Amino acid sequence: MLLVDPAYRRRGIGTALLKAAIDRVENVGAVRLDATPTGKKLYDTLGFREEYRLARWQRMAAPHLREPNIQCQKVDRQTAPDSVRDISREIVRFDSPIFGAERGKILNTLLQNAPQYAHYVQRGAQIVGYCMGRSGSNFEQIGPIVAQESEVAQALILSELQRCADRNVIVDVLVNQKDWVAFLRDLGFGEQRPFIRMYRGELRPSGQPEKQFAIAGPEIG
User: Core-most of 18, 46, 136, 198, by most CB within 10 Å?
Assistant: First the structure.
């Protein structure tokens, strides 16, 4: 996350901080970040290019979702998310090829800070999806949500929404997943603001964005 006090902006501080961060990591491959439309102007000048678009969707408190019979017909009614508990290693192994990098420390921090939002779906011996989240001053954030198919992602977010129905909720999603976005809209979500995932350097194929239904947040990835 890159922040500059408004009183000290337009003095080159943000550019200097960003260049220092780039210098630390660009020797290991492409540098990636999630930009706001305002921040994109700076990143463009430093050689970053657009990869794909994201958007933050929000839903204000909806206590009626506490009702246990809230379902979506697209969701397999036999799918029952379970608590992550002691399978964090298995979650990391499932997540890494889909996210495109190993982020076990981030996932374990999310698990420790908000275990109530850490759940997974397993079919047979295979994990087919998981989600995590965190609490904020104004919103509960659900994400990441990673799943092999949309129906699993739907079951996971329905499970989480029932746990925080009395709180405002945000979720950061890839805008090209039209069916998923339509599902969120049906649940009462509306778009709050856009983000742009950008990269600098040679971007080699990595990850499976089509299986990432929500990111952890633009400041986390």
Answer: 198
pLDDT per position as a tens digit, 92-143: 999 999 999 899 999 999 988 999 999 988 888 889 999 999 999 999 999 9
Q: How far apart are CA 161 and CA 217, in angstroms?
A: 17
Computed on alpha carbons and rounded to an integer, the radius of gyration of the chain in Å comes to 18
172 closest CA partner among 150, 148, 197: 197
Which token pair is 202? 């040679």
- Record the tokens describing residue 184, joined without a space: 């969120």
Residue 48, φ and ψ in degrees, nearest 5: -80, 145
For residue 198, the SS3 value is: strand
Q: Are 110 and 134 in contact (CB under 8 A)?
A: yes
pTM: 0.85
Q: Alpha-carbon torsion 74, 197, 189, 80, what sign?
A: positive
Helix (H) or strand (E) holding 162: helix 150-163
Q: Which two tokens stand for residue 128?
A: 């087919």
